[in-house]
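#struct-help
A.M.: can someone run this one for me? Single chain, 276 residues.
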Amino acid sequence: MIVAGITTPIVNILADIIDFLGPHGAIGLPWAWAIVALTVMVRMLLVPLTVKQIHSMQNLQRHAPEMKEIQRRYKGDRQKMNEELMKFYKEKEINPAASCLPMLVQIPIFFALYFVLKNFTNHVTALPSELHWLIVPNITAKVTEHWSGYVLLVLYIGSQVGYAYFGTPPNLPKSQRVLFMIVPFFILPFVSRFPVGLLMYWMTTNLWTVGQGIITRQMVPKPAPPPKRSSRTPPKEETALPPTDGVSETRAPAQAAAVRPTSPRRVKRKKKKGGR
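D.P.: on it. Structure tokens below:
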């Protein structure tokens, strides 16, 4: 298999790390918790990329009004709009793809861990009695082989929904955020064929992303609300018209005086005869 051949070096590295963390290694963790510890180590190594992701989100949020103005200005010419946006990104040192870098780096690790768990006993020395985890009898078995796997599937969907809400950029359109929440239900048939240990890795990295997203939302500056116009706000001043024939004159005050409402005339009532 092509993917297996490409990820072979990563497979060997992950197997050595899990073996080091596992019951027969220096740390002595159960195999399931060794996978959780591996997930945390991977996410800690991705912290520099995460920092770039946060800075990119901050720049996008800060310059969002200017980008919207460019999109409005070149709405009829999509090619010109893309060129101007690329030029704007270069001037402001914005990398729109920075938010996808942590996910792209994790893809080969995800596949490599799948192959490690698929042939777990070939990579590490594990006894069958050591593969249980809480209510899960075997972390290398498929998710649907035991009722506990369905419990993990529910937890997985919850972690995916949390990832879609907190892990995605705050300026992501609502339609795309809803799509992130719906996708897990469509890929359930594929996820159910995964080993339990791989599902644990996925859940752990989702929960990490949720916590990271909560922190990121606090760091990204919120756009300032537009000023509200009240009834006491003074109206804009009339601009003076340009002079004509070399004679400097200001017509705005004259025009304003011309249309200025006059007070109603008082009518003198005639006194009736015999009245006081």
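A.M.: thanks! Residues 196-219 form the longest helix (24 residues).
D.P.: also worth noting: Residues 58 and 220 are 5 Å apart (CA to CA).
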